[in-house]
Structures are given as structure tokens and as C-alpha cells.
Write a structure and sequence with these properties.
By secondary structure, this protein is an alpha/beta fold. The chain is 30% helix and 23% strand. It has a single domain (48-196), classed as Rossmann fold (3-Layer(aba) Sandwich), CATH 3.40.50. Strands 1, 3, 4, 5, 6, 7, 8, 9 and 11 form a nine-stranded mixed sheet that branches. The chain has a two-stranded antiparallel sheet with strand order 2-10. A hairpin with a 4-residue loop joins strand 8 and strand 9. It is globular and about 40 Å long.
Length: 198
């Protein structure tokens, strides 16, 4: 039931964005209640938690080539490099499915493991480390996402930014996505505050 509610809510979530305060990030209660038990609904989600919801929802607005999956039963892998968020949301996301596949959240110990990831979230890392990670998989069909400033303007595909209204928003690099044989839907592009096309 929770999964079905989340699916219906995806488009709304990307359209409206998520408002944040200076210290904490806010999303409509219904969105985050999909992941926390009722006793925790009153807890305001953090910026990182909102980004995790985005990362899961990206699977509904990005298409990967068939070769990105070893088999029809292969799981969908979200890999997090850098600072590791540890909370109930990680556990809940790991129990979800998307596009008929199990959804796994991994914390790779080797940088070279990025080539096995469908989404790689480079979380709160330095520009130097970002370049080292991306170089490990120059052509793999991996959706590269980070909150590092300028990431989408260089080798990245999606960059999380905070807009003037304190909402988590995204920038998208279509050229880098195409290079990795990824197709980003027009619906997702409509929510981006900037799209790099060349």
C-alpha cells in the first residue's frame, strides 16, 4: 500500500519540490509518512532524507539500457559514496521495488564499484574525490548525482541545489546523460532549474 501511494505521489513531488528551513528540510507530511511509522510522522525530514526520496523517484523518470541489468531479475542499485546517511529511510527504501525490480541501497568500499551502480550519489564529497570516482566508470550507464556545487556543469548528470525559497531542486546535464545511454523524461526536465544540453 505504501509503495502504491508513493508511485501516485512521484509526479507531484517533482513538480512542487521540497521546502527547507535553514537547519531542516521539509516535505509534505504525506510524502515522508510513506517511509516512517505513524509515531514518527511529526518528525521533520532532513535535507538528506528529501534527497533520498528524490533518488528513489529518479528511477521512474530515467530510462536505462537493457544492458545495464544482468537479467530480468537483477536489482536496481543505488550506491552512496561519501558521507553515509544512516536512518530509517535507508532501511525502508531497501525494502522497495521499482520497475518490477528490488531496490538496493549500497555503500561501496571500492571506488571502482561505481560501474555496477545504476544511480551513484556522491554525497558531501570534495571536487577531487568526485573526479576520482567518476573516472572509474567513464562510459557505464550510471546516473551520476551529487550535491557538490558545479557537478552538473562538469562530469555529473544531476546536481542537487537549494533555491531561493529554500527548496531542494535539481540541475540536469542531458549531454552527459546521453553519453551514458540514459534517457531522462521531459517531466523530470521540467522541474530542473537549469538544463545543460551541449
Amino acid at each position: 500500500m505504501l509503495f502504491n501511494q508513493l508511485s501516485r505521489l512521484c509526479t507531484c513531488f517533482f513538480t512542487t519540490g521540497a521546502r527547507m528551513s535553514r537547519r531542516r528540510a521539509f516535505a509534505p507530511g504525506l510524502i515522508m509518512s510513506l517511509f516512517f511509522n505513524q509515531a514518527a510522522w511529526a518528525i521533520q525530514p532532513s535535507e538528506t532524507e528529501i534527497k533520498l526520496v528524490y533518488l528513489y523517484n529518479f528511477t521512474k523518470f530515467v530510462s536505462w539500457p537493457d544492458t545495464a541489468f544482468g537479467s530480468i531479475n537483477a536489482p536496481f542499485r543505488l550506491c552512496i559514496f561519501g558521507e553515509q546517511p544512516i536512518n530509517e529511510l535507508i532501511t525502508s527504501l531497501s525494502a522497495k521495488k521499482t520497475a518490477g525490480r528490488n531496490f538496493e541501497v549500497l555503500f561501496p568500499k571500492q571506488l571502482s564499484d561505481i560501474s555496477t551502480c545504476h544511480i551513484a550519489f556522491l554525497h558531501r564529497i570534495s571536487a577531487t574525490m568526485s573526479k576520482r570516482i567518476v573516472r572509474q566508470a567513464p562510459d557505464s550507464p550510471t546516473l551520476l548525482v551529487s550535491d557538490l556545487a558545479g557537478f552538473a556543469g562538469e562530469a555529473g548528470i544531476i546536481e542537487f541545489v537549494i533555491d531561493e525559497q529554500n527548496r531542494v531542486r535539481i540541475k540536469v546535464n542531458l549531454a552527459n546523460a546521453h553519453q551514458r545511454k540514459l534517457t531522462i523524461s521531459a517531466k523530470l526536465l521540467e522541474t530542473a532549474i537549469h538544463t545543460y544540453r551541449d
